[in-house]
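Q: Here's a chain of 267 amino acids. Please give me its 3D structure as tokens.
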Amino acid sequence: METIFHHDPRIEDWVKQITEKIFTVCLLSGVDSEAEFQEGSLIVAKIAAVFLGFATFPSEYLEDGLKQLLEQQLPDARVINNFPTFRETMNRMLQAGISKVMESHQIAAECMRQEATEEAIEEAAEEATEEATEEATEEAIEEVTEEVTKKVTEEFVEKTTKDDSEKVIITKGSAEGELMVTLKHVLSFSFPNKKITWNSKLMGQTFLAQVEDTLICLQDPNQAIDLQIYIKEGWKVVLCTTDELKFPRRLERKFRQAQRLGKRSYL
């Protein structure tokens, strides 16, 4: 207590003011006395706030410490005895001042707790949002990648000719998607810069693809096709099995042979 007293020179002046206020309250009455009392309690609150600012000072000893500090600075006991209500007034003033500062500290502490809680909630919300965003982004990337891969390799092959107004789309099940991709690349290699028409319909029959005068037909054991009709009309017909679509080199040989054989050919 003595260390704090000498640490802040304002405290000595405040103690003198409190002592004067106590005497004044004892001399006055009514509103004037109450006004002096309130001013004195505010000065007590100032000293209490200084003490509470030291982390090592326990708040439960605040009232006893302030009382001890005041009593050390009081005038002679014979002077005090001339004011019968002095001790009572001093105790009430100390309690009122301490009550004011403790209430302020409690409000400040509550505000700090609320701010800390709000910050913790905000941080948790931000972390949760960031995690959710990262997860959503990763999922979105995976979905897009999967969808693009599926469309390119399994769902469809889209071919745009030199004429931008004409677009041919092949749609196949996922089991045939890769075969269609293989066929597309082989046709593009065997017939460079030539238009490929997919699912070409000719004389009531649908062919897998058509490149100029060459028709590519997928062999179906459950459906017989009279290909001679088309050959007589001057078409080259390349008949492929599903297994052959898995081997690009084999397809290339078939297409080269069809081109060498001329108009009337059947492979």
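Q: Can you summarize the key feature?
A: Residues 2-114 form one domain.
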